[in-house]
Write a structure and sequence with these properties.
The complex is a heterodimer of chains A (504) and B (193). Chain A has 504 residues and is α+β, with helices and mostly antiparallel strands. Chain A has a domain of 152 residues. Helix content of chain A is 63%, strand content 9%. In chain A, strands 4-3-2-1-5-6-7-8 form an 8-stranded antiparallel sheet, with helices on one face. The longest helix of chain A is centred in the C-terminal third of the chain and has 43 residues. Chain A is globular and about 80 Å long. By secondary structure, chain B is an all-alpha fold. Chain B has 2 domains: 76 residues, no CATH class; 84 residues, no CATH class. In chain B, α1 runs parallel beside α4 and α6 runs parallel beside α8. In chain B, 33% of the residues are buried. Classes of the chains: A alpha+beta (504), B mainly alpha (193).
């Protein structure tokens, strides 16, 4: 029995070492991906927040779609002689009540009559989603790196559960004792255990999305003579081969009517015309499927709006349906605002779990007499610097049109360098949080100054409301820490004065 | 906020699902607090498992399956927060710097091999294994492709955990090499050199 217990504790020690080693190796990048992902749950709302003055509606006039499609093709033709390979139309509905048309590099919002309005400008939201999906790296490299981080996260969840022998015994305990390590361990373990199904779902779907290109390449090389399109054509509708011969633009309104009559319970929300305005053109209509996790059902139609085939994302083979369900499960876009808020809360929990995990390792080093003070401060610079520079990137974009990519990464580097340079950990912690509060307040004021009443209108209300809540929460934390500092300082002062009295 | 995604939700089933899930979690919490016997514990887990069905009735098969654990996690966090001593949380935490105690350090070569094994070697081995399965499987292309992706992102992390926890590194190393050789042979046989 004793031998069995010894072997068990040795295994737990090994599992814990493996878990902390892997966590340490991935911590910084994993934190950035998890944090940006938690924020990016609201990317449709961020798009609306970036341009809150754009008209919003869910009904449009007959012929508006064809009118908007033709108008954007004309706009793109004025920009370049090269014909666009895609025409994209986002149809307004309750969750995204905006009518958007894109062709090539041109993109604009349209009104209910299909007349083009303001150009689409979601630079900051695109930066945010790129940060989460690719860590701002070029497409395949970034996706693969984030996919590998997803695999690492799966390993961390499994390793963490194996390293936790008292999973049920400690299931609900949260000891706010005086020991920092115990506090951090309890927070890390409780958050980690209860959000493990959520973390696994996100990590597995994220890893599949991230590694899909590499896997597609391997499968294509081994089984499809290097043809990646052939390898993945069972999952997607195929693109037509370009002919380059001009033809009248496809009748997108007729295509939409065909899909509506075919599946009246579905909500068509996008139309893509491949090779628009040529004899090769083909229309693809995407429609939301009620009560399902699948991203959409896609229908392929010819230029006159006759049905050719469907992608089978909602009723095809199990593999296709599983693949089609991964995106909504990963992004949290399947139950309206309540599920998005749940994802934000649990995502914030995961961020805390990753941050606490890194801190546990650093505190353990300190308790063993081998502290890494610079690394401790650098970790603080990443944990609190990431939200700070994300807010600064939005301020830079709105205020001076600075590229968010550069503001974020240069800002994060500076945050770490300054954190390492500042000697006092306590003041650094409070300083970073104070800066974060001020930055959010500046962003809110800037948004209000730029957009006036639209900043409190339906398009921006949610994001600005969440920013106000963040200010309150971080301020509460700052107030607590300031109280500790003041109490600590007064204790030191009173000790000093009593010491001086004794000396005199 | 009005959302298209909530239009198809059945409110009665949703209420039932929420009540069942919450009841299961509260029972689990009470078992934990009062150190109740295994019967109550199993009953609590049973209620949580059964509550998946009303979630599926309310939201649909796959959406219900996705939301059920999220709700349970939320209730668990609320119960943990309710039981925590927040007065103690207002006091600052203390970090004691201990005396230097150099622990057992493994040689760099050993650590490097462990990382190489967990990373690139097991990635190659799991890709080989998955491609071997892909080659032999009779499933359709779509099912094989998605199955291969799922196998990869589950098998590789398991291999990472194994290679980082096994004290005898030669065991995962041997398994890795064996899988690489076998899957390489299977692929050569199936695809052709």
């Amino acid at each position: 029995m004793a031998r069995g217990n010894g072997a068990r504790s040795a295994f737990v020690k090994l599992a814990l070492n493996g878990h902390s080693g892997l966590g340490l190796a991935l911590s910084a990048l994993l934190y950035i991906v998890v944090f940006s992902g938690s924020v990016a749950v609201f990317y449709p709302e961020f798009e609306r927040w970036e341009q809150p003055a754009v008209p919003e509606f869910t009904e449009w006039q007959p012929g508006a779609i064809s009118h908007a499609a033709s108008a954007i093709m004309v706009l793109e033709a004025k920009r370049t002689e090269e014909p666009p390979d895609h025409l994209f139309i986002a149809l307004p509905y309750t969750d995204m009540p905006r009518f958007v048309v894109h062709a090539g590099e041109s993109g604009a919002f349209a009104d209910p009559a299909g007349r083009l309005g303001a150009p689409v400008n979601h630079e900051w939201t695109h930066f945010l989603t790129d940060l989460h999906l690719r860590l701002s790296l070029p497409s395949v490299w970034g996706l693969t790196l984030v996919g590998i981080l997803g695999v690492g996260m799966v390993a961390l969840v499994i390793g963490g559960i194996l390293a936790h022998p008292n999973l049920l015994k400690d299931a609900f305990s949260l000891r706010w004792s005086g020991s920092a390590r115990l506090r951090l361990a309890d927070v890390h373990n409780r958050l980690g255990v209860w959000s493990s199904p959520f973390a696994l779902a996100l990590a597995i779907t994220g890893a599949v999305i991230g590694l899909s290109q590499v896997l597609g390449f391997v499968v294509a090389t081994l089984f499809f003579e290097g043809n990646t399109d052939a390898a993945t054509e069972s999952l997607f509708l195929s693109d037509p081969k370009p002919t380059g011969e001009a033809a009248p633009l496809a009748n997108v309104s007729a295509a939409l009517e065909t899909v509506r009559s075919l599946s009246p319970e579905m909500q068509p929300n996008m139309i893509i015309v491949h090779e628009p305005g040529t004899t090769a053109q083909r229309v693809e209509v995407g429609a939301l499927v009620p009560g399902r996790l699948v991203w959409s059902e896609f229908y392929a139609l010819d230029a006159e709006g006759r049905l050719l085939e469907s992608a089978g994302w909602s009723d095809g083979e199990p593999g296709v349906q599983v693949y089609a369900s991964m995106f909504r499960l990963h992004f949290g876009h399947f139950g309206g605002l309540s599920v998005q808020l749940l994802y934000l809360l649990l995502g914030a929990g995961l961020c805390t779990c990753v941050a606490a995990g890194g801190s546990i390792w650093l505190v353990r080093r300190r308790q063993r007499g081998m502290p890494y003070p610079r690394l401790e401060r650098a970790w603080m610079g990443i944990v609190w610097g990431t939200p700070l520079v994300l807010i600064l990137s939005a301020i830079g974009w709105f205020g001076w049109a600075w590229q968010p990519l550069y503001t974020f990464w240069i800002g994060l580097l500076l945050s770490v360098v300054i954190a390492v340079a500042i000697g006092d950990r306590v003041y650094l912690a409070v300083g970073l949080k104070l800066l974060l509060v001020m930055a959010i307040l500046v962003l809110l004021c800037l948004h209000l100054a730029l957009f006036g009443l639209d900043a409190v209108g339906p398009a921006a209300r949610l994001i600005n409301g969440l920013l106000v809540v963040s200010v309150l929460l971080v301020s509460l934390r700052v107030w607590l820490e300031l109280r500790w500092i003041i109490r600590d300082a007064s204790t030191t002062l009173s000790l000093r004065s009593s010491g001086q009295a004794a000396d005199s | 906020m009005n959302s298209w995604f909530v239009a198809s939700i059945s409110p009665v089933a949703l209420l039932l699902a929420g009540l069942f899930s919450t009841a299961g979690m509260v029972l689990l919490y009470l078992c934990w607090r009062r150190k109740n016997g295994p019967v109550w514990l199993w009953l609590a887990w049973g209620i949580i498992a059964v509550s998946i069905w009303p979630w599926q009735q309310a939201l649909g098969f796959d959406r219900g399956l996705a939301v059920a654990p999220l709700w349970s996690a939320l209730v668990a966090f609320l119960l943990i927060a309710r039981g925590a001593n927040w007065r103690a949380a207002l006091r600052p935490a203390v970090i004691h710097t201990g005396r230097s105690r150099p622990g057992e350090q493994r040689p760099w070569g050993h650590r490097l091999l462990r990382w190489l094994l967990a990373g690139p070697l097991f990635l190659l081995a799991t890709i080989g294994l998955v491609m071997g399965w892909f080659a032999q499987s009779q499933w359709s292309d779509a099912n094989r492709l998605v199955g291969a992706a799922l196998f990869l992102v589950i098998l590789w992390p398991l291999a990472i955990v194994w290679s980082s926890t096994d004290p005898r590194l030669w065991r995962p190393l041997l398994a890795c090499v064996a899988v690489l050789i076998l899957s390489g042979c299977a692929l050569l046989y199936r695809v052709g050199g």
